[in-house]
Structures are given as structure tokens and as C-alpha cells.
Amino acid sequence: MKFETVIGLEVHTELKTASKIFCGCTTEFGGDQNTHVCPVCLGLPGVLPVLNEKVLEFAIRTGLALNCKISHYSKFDRKNYYYPDLPKNFQTSQYDLPICEGGYLDIEVGGETKRIGITRVHMEEDAGKLVHSGTISNSEYALVDYNRTGVPLLEIVSEPDIRTPEEAKAYLEKIKSILSYIDVSDCKMEEGSLRCDANISLRPVGQEQFGTKAEIKNVNSFKAVQRALEYEQERQEEVLSEGGRIIQETRTWDDSRGVTLSMRNKEQAQDYRYFPEPDLVPIVVDSEQIEAIRRSLPELPDARKARIMKEQGLSAYDAEVITATRPMADYFDALIAAGAEAKAAANWLMGEVSKLLNACSLDIRSCPVPPANLAEMIALIEKGTISGKIAKTVFEAMWNEGKTAPVIVKEQGLVQMSDEGELGNIVEAVIAANPQSVADFNAGKEKAVGFLVGQIMRQTKGRANPELVNRLLKEKLTGK
Amino acid sequence: MDLFRLKAHELQQKLFRREVSAVEITQSVLARADKVDSTIQSFITRTPEAALAQAKRVDEKLARGEAVSPLAGIPGALKDNMCTKGVKTTCASKILANFVPPYDATITEKLAAADAVIVGKANLDEFAMGSSTENSGFFVTRNPWDTDRVPGGSSGGSGAAVAAGEAIWSLGSDTGGSIRLPAAYCGVVGLKPTYGRVSRYGLVAYASSLDQIGPFARDVRDCALVLGAISGHDRRDSTSINAPVPDYTAKLESGVKGLKIGLPREYFVAGMQPEVEAAIRRSIDELVAMGAELVEVSMPHTQYALATYYLIATAEASSNLGRYDGVGFGHRGEGSDIVSMYKRSRAEGFGPEVQRRIMLGTYALSSGYYDAYYLKALKVRTLIKQDFDRAFGQVDVLIAPIAPTTAFKIGEKVEDPLAMYLVDVCTIPSNLAGVPALSLPCGFADGLPIGMQIIGPHLSEATLLQVAYTFEQAHDYHKQLAAIREVD
Predict the structure, then answer these.
(1) Nearest by CB to B365, which of A48, A273, A281?
(2) N- to C-terminal Cα distance for chain A?
(3) Could you tell me which of A23, A17, A52, A51 has the C-alpha nearest to residue A37?
(4) Would residue B337 count as lying in a domain?
(5) Given A44, A48, A82, which is nearest B238 (Cβ)?
(6) In DSSP terms, which residues pair with B451 in a beta bridge?
(7) Cβ–Cβ below 8 Å for B201 and A84
(8) What is residue B375's DSSP assignment?
């Protein structure tokens, strides 16, 4: 029997507001344990929450960017459960009246665009962090750090529209791209500012009704989400193919072993006893507020991609990569504004620039080569002043020394050798010095040309104009 | 003369005229407590040194000719569920027996800004759950009028302290009658303000949508003074009302001529003590004689108020009290793992009534029962609010009993929680509706005070005080103080 996979994702993202959702404490990551706390986020007897208006604004921004309907009337609810990282033993969240509902986003997989529904986006508070003395199972004690308690979170819930682990990864990348475009979250999975739980079930192809799902928690990277889903897809298929039944349960992803493991099943599922948070008043948002936030939204990835394709004639692939993050797209726009040719600009950005940024673990916002300098260098290639090959050396020097391309080219004498007479002499000398290669060439071995080009490049320290070298070499070898 | 016997406004006059000092007033009140508190047991924690130091500061201010508020130098008490920085706040619970808050409640700050003197933290039913103060995790407070009887609850310590002369005024909290019942049983004035009039920030929550802080006082004028000092919008309490605070003493002498008084027939329940019913009806007749107009009204959903309350209040409590788990603060029981530690901490820390209400509330919110209990209670709450809206479309205030009987004997109802719950049948509806209600002494039965309840629409505190003052001035109930044998 053939099965179809059904996946829905719950993404939790920490909002980068300056202060926490219900008190004035900083949301800064790190800090000494239990220093970013106050009576309110510690849940001391008698305290009351007050909603940070910025959180509401960020939630609406996110909802609009994800094409959601923004609720004019929404409220907070308490989700009750006991856990030592939760000082009040309830999490203030939103249950039946979330701030945003009914949106979507488009993902691109295998050259096809697919629309994934967004069920809801809601606001809630983050919990603290447990620090165990050993591993979770053999710890003698655990300590609690409440610094993260009360950091604002958005939970973004997708419709079960995702059909493959690859689509799931593309969905997450798109969410991350949109959230960073609208500047509401850092989306750093390693710092826990973006987290994902995945629901996955299988059903026979053609069947309308969903199969029994498993929820996978503890997945800490996009790659891990894809791997966990691939593993789980295979596991469920195996169970079903052998006539077994899937148990509705929560499973945890063990990244080092590459497996999902059962945490708790439906029978052990908690009853959260949701009820309206009596310490907060309902949230009433009018159309004017929503429209003001809509007007403040920047151009979103999809629109920017379409614009770059149309205006600059880039391929869909190039435009997708370049617009994946807003700083990257901004850098590209700056290159174009400085006069760089679009395709060359895109290639440099996706090639050398990204390579060095990755090697140095830098964000493009801290790229040591400003866009105008890179554009200037690209112009030197266009004019034939330097070769594309030499340009890589020049770019590295610009990166390391902070100088402009013309200065480096001048200092290091990297100007391309394009003088036909001068280069012709060198070509002749190389031909004369390598009779065996000439013989090979005459015997029909085209490869011999490559060797000779290499020799010429070595003698000119790579400065020879490659096109000219090729022409001269062919002319002299064939006597034409 | 015994300064502790005077009203706040009388002491204020003497203070301003420099006839007495704030230190002398405070010493008198502290000395009185020294002599009677072993009998009455109003206080969980007494703070005599801090009180005298504060009184001294007030005297220095007065000596420098600085302007001070009407409560400056006047000793009062706080119910021990209001946070006081550096001073134990126990909620009369073993689970918080050693809890010292690192912050002040908004009312604590406001009273400090008003230069008031605080002499101690008053006893209560544990976490304000009860009607007799017998549910205190520490000891039972006694009624100053008859020490074999309860002072009412849950703010029994606050009511008894004012009645016994151990404080000139005090604050209580009222979730289902917890200010008004002890005020009635102890023969003092008590007011539950409109929900949101006084900030709840720093009041340890029992049932968040019902809790409200309010004053106890010896007479109506004092009640108005204290209310004025603690009212007002607070950014730290999202449910607090952003409306200006009037001078609550301004309208006191305006009389009741032309005022429409409603008599809600559902509040005169079967089984009422005849003397109590007679006293209320007599009081209404007197108000009519003073010029008020009487209108009989019906509030048909009153009979469901008690059930509604015990679903909503316990549901909220079950969640509010989740934080007492032994992890961050409060009593921690021994346990081999986190769950057994939770269980031991809570089993050892909470008394039986608190445990009962947590269980009730947990049940009411459980999946499968939520709609039948909690959600239905919310709907009935709306109907009860509508009863009040309709009534206040016809009348200015409602007059009703506070409780069906006068103070009952200690131990009389402890074995019967339902009988104890029924004591609050007349006070609970106004909490559900969020409207203000005042308890005023209106007579005695066998030497025990009887309380009359005056209920008004949202933010009508000034009108309630006006009606109460008019009635009070025609009697001498407020001039009587319980006779308590002083012990040296």
C-alpha cells in the first residue's frame, strides 16, 4: 500500500522586544542566572501581569506578513501544568481567541510553488530553563534559571498541508525569512529563539481521513526537523505496512542517534485546564491600528524576489537565494545602486561573499567589504582591467586589508596582461619550451592546450587575459 | 483619655491642633493591643517599632509645618494577604509562614505616601477562604463583642482589630463578603469598593476576578478617608479602573431626600434570624422617614449566586495557588523526586478548606466538565450582572442584610462547609457583578451587632457613603466600642 505523509508544524519564536511580555525585565539572552528577573516574572505571591504593547504590535506584524486575519477581539488564557521552570505553574497563553487566524505562506520545492495554510498565530510567555546536575535521568538535582521566564513568544501553527520532510524544511526557512524581514525575531535556533514541534501522520493515498499522528519535540535545527520527519515517516510506514497501529503520542528527537523516542502517550496527556486569564483585560484592536501596522511593513521576501526577477532579470533560483534574508537582499540592492551588473553581483554575493562570511561566521551586516567597493571591483572585471580569476585574489585582499580594488590592483601589479605583442612573446616561448605538448596537440589531444595555458598563467602570475591566451595559443599552434 | 477609642477624623483634628502627637496616638493603640490581643488575637505579625518610627516621622513633618494627608499618623492594620516589603506576609497559611515579600503592594505604597502608621498584619482565613477566620493556619480570632464567637471572615483580624481598639482603621479584602461579613459581626463599617477601584497589585490572589481591597473603620467618615487614600488607577493592575478619585467625604452630609432605595426581595431568605430581618426593615423605614423613596425590586438570579461563586472562585483559586509548590519560595516538603516534593509541600502547607477549594476548582476546569460547570457559571454570572443593571435602572441603591444571622459560635459550623458557605449568600452577588457594597451597623441582637448592606452601581461609593452617613448620624452604634477585659 502507498502512503501519503501529512505534516503540520508548530513554530515558537521569541520576539525581540526590549522587555518581557508582562514585566519590565530585559529579554537579553544569557546573563548570570536569575539576574533578569523581578517579582512579576518570578510569579511571587500578589503580582499581576501587564501586557507589553510591543508584543501585541509584533504579533500583528507577524500575522499580517503571514496573510492572517487579525482579531479585533482577543484574550489571554491560562494553561495550567506543573513544571519547575514555570514559576506560576501556569503559562499565560492564548487558547480559543488568538490574535491572528487563517493565513498562509508560499514555499518553493523542486521548482514548484506550494501554498501552506497558517491556522493561527498566538502570543504567550516563555518558561525558564532547568540546569541538571547530570543527565535528565540520573541528575541528583536540578537548578532553575528564570532569566528566560516571561520572554515573549509567538506560536505559529500551520495547517496539515505539508506533505514531505523537504517541504517542512522549506516552510521553516520561509518562516524564518519572513520573521527576520519584519524584524520581530532573531530566529536563532541555537539560542532557542526559534523552536519547532512537528506533527506527522500517514494515510493511504486517496484516503480523506487523517491517520493517527505523533508529535515530535526537541528538534533544534532545520536540518534536524527534516531528518526527524524522514525517520518518523519511515517508522510509521513500517508499522502500518506490517498491519500495526500508530499510537498517538509525543516523541522526542535524539539527534546523535538519529531516532525519535516515545515520551508520553495520549493516555498520559495532560489536561491543561485552560480558562480566561482574569488578571488581563481582553485585547481590543481597531482597524486603524491594524492598517497603521500594515503600512509599516517592509517589502516581504516573495514581493522582493518577484521584483528582483523582473527588474534585474535574475533567475528564480538566484532571486530566491538573494532574498532569503533581508540584509542579503539589501546588500544586493546596494550593489545594483552602485552600478554593478545584476548577474555578476548575484554571483559574487552567492559565491565569494557568502563563502568568506561563512568561513568567518559573519553576518552580511558586518561584511568588511562595503557594497560600493565590491561594485567597483566588479566594474574592473567588466572593463577587463582584472580577470575574474585575479578578482578573487583582489576580493580577499579587500576583505583582509580594507582597501579598495584599484589600490590593491595597483599595489600588487595585478592589472590584466592584454597586450597582444607582449603576451605573444610569452606564448611563443612556452610553445618552444614544451615540444611534447605541441606534439600531443598535433596528435589530436586537446587536453595539451590546458597544460600550456597553465604554463603561461604561471609565468604571468595569473595576470594574462585568459581569452587572449587561448586565441594566441590556438593561432600559433595551428599556424593560422 | 483613651486615644485608641477615637475615630481617625477626630484624632486628625487633635493632631493638627497639636493637642496630641502621632507618637502618643500610636502608643495608645499599641498599648491597647498589648492588653487585648492575647484575648482577641487579631494579629499574625505586629510591627510596633516600625509604627512608632513612622509616627515620629509624622510628628517631625508636622513640626516643620509640612502638609500631611488626613491619614497621617493614624494607626491602621493590613490583612496579612497584602504584601509588605521586608515584613512577613503569610496569608495565614503554613505554606507562606516565613514568606517575606521583596516588594510592596500598591496599597502599601499609597498608605506610606499618605504617612499612615501600620501597626501589624491581621489574621484571616487561610488565603482568604472562609467566613469565620477559623480557617487560619495559625489561630482563631475572637469576636470582641463575645469572645466565644467568630469575628466573621475572611478578614476577621482586620474587623476585630478595629472593633477592639487595636487599630483605628484597617484594610481587608473581599471576594465573596470577606470585608462586609466581619464588619457586620464586629459592629464596624466595612466597604467593598467597585472591582478595579483599588489596585490588587500586591494582594495575594484568591479569586482574581472577584478580589477587591477595601477599608474597615469605626464610622462612615473614616471609611471615606481610608477609601480615598487607597483608590485610584494603577498601571501595574490591568483590571484597575482609570477614573478620577473623588473626595469621598464631600457628599456625606447631603442626606437621602429623593433617593430611590431598592429592596431586593430575594435577599430576605428563609431561615433568617428574626431580629436581623426586623433591624434591616426598621432601618429602611427610617431612611424612608428621612426622605428616601422605597421601591421593591426583584433580582431573580440571586439564588444561583452561591453556586456560581463556588465554581468561579475555586476555578481561579486552583490556578492562582498553583505557584505554592515548594520550588521558589514557601514551605517545601521532603520528596524523592519533583512530583512527590510537590505533593508533600502542598499537603503539608495547605489547610483542609484550601485543599477542598483547589480540588473543587480543578474539577470545574477539567476537560469534559468545563462546559457544564465553569462555562455555565460564567453565563450565570452575566445574568446576575444583568439583575443589578436592571435594578439600578430603577433605584439608586439597594438595601439588604449582610448575613442571615449575627455572629455564630466558634466551632459551630466548622464541620459543615455548606452551612459555612451559606453565610455569604447575601454578599456574594455584588462580587460577581463587581459593584460596590457597604456594611453598616444598624442594631444589636442579644448584644451582637447587626449589619445592613448598602449596594450601588459601579463607582457609586460616594452615594453609598452618603446613605450610610445619613443613617449613622441618626444613631449611636458607631459610638459604641466592645467591652473587652484588658489583660496586663
Answers:
(1) A273
(2) 68
(3) A23
(4) no
(5) A48
(6) B441
(7) no
(8) I
Phi, psi values for residue A123, rounded to 5°: -95, 145
* pLDDT digit string, tens, across residues B108-131: 999 999 999 999 999 999 999 999
Complex confidence, ipTM: 0.96
**What is the percentage of chain B residues whose pLDDT exceeds 90?**
94
The reply to whether B365 falls in a domain is: no
Q: Tell me, yes or no, if A313 comes closer than 8 A to chain B by beta carbon.
A: no
Amino acid letter for position A129: K
Domain that holds residue B438: 3-262+393-479
- Do residues A146 and A191 lie in contact, with contact meaning Cβ atoms separated by under 8 Å? no
Q: Is residue B327 part of a domain?
A: no
**A130 contact B CB<8A:** no
**A80 contact residues in B (CB cutoff 8 A):** 318-319, 322, 365
CATH of the domain at B168: 3.90.1300.10
Q: Tell whether B316 is covered by a domain.
A: no
Active site residue B131: no
pTM equals: 0.91
Specify the number of domains making up chain B: 1
Mean pLDDT value of segment A274-281: 98
CB contact under 8 A, B101 and A44: yes
B322–A82 C-beta distance less than 8 A: yes
Q: Which of A23, A79, A279, A281 to mutate to test the interface with B (most CBs of B within 10 A)?
A: A279
Q: Which of B69, B136, B178, B460 is the catalytic position?
A: B178
DSSP secondary structure, A339-400, as one string:
T--HHHHHHHIIIIIHHHHHHTT--GGG-SS-HHHHHHHHHHHHHTSS-HHHHHHHHHHHHH
CA distance A403 to B280: 94
Weakest mean pLDDT among A287-301, A349-363, B229-243, B279-293: A349-363
Of B414, B207, B424, B421, whose CA–CA distance to B314 is shortest? Answer: B207
Nearest to A281 among B102, B238, B339 (CB): B238
Strands B169-173 and B75-79, by their bridges, are parallel
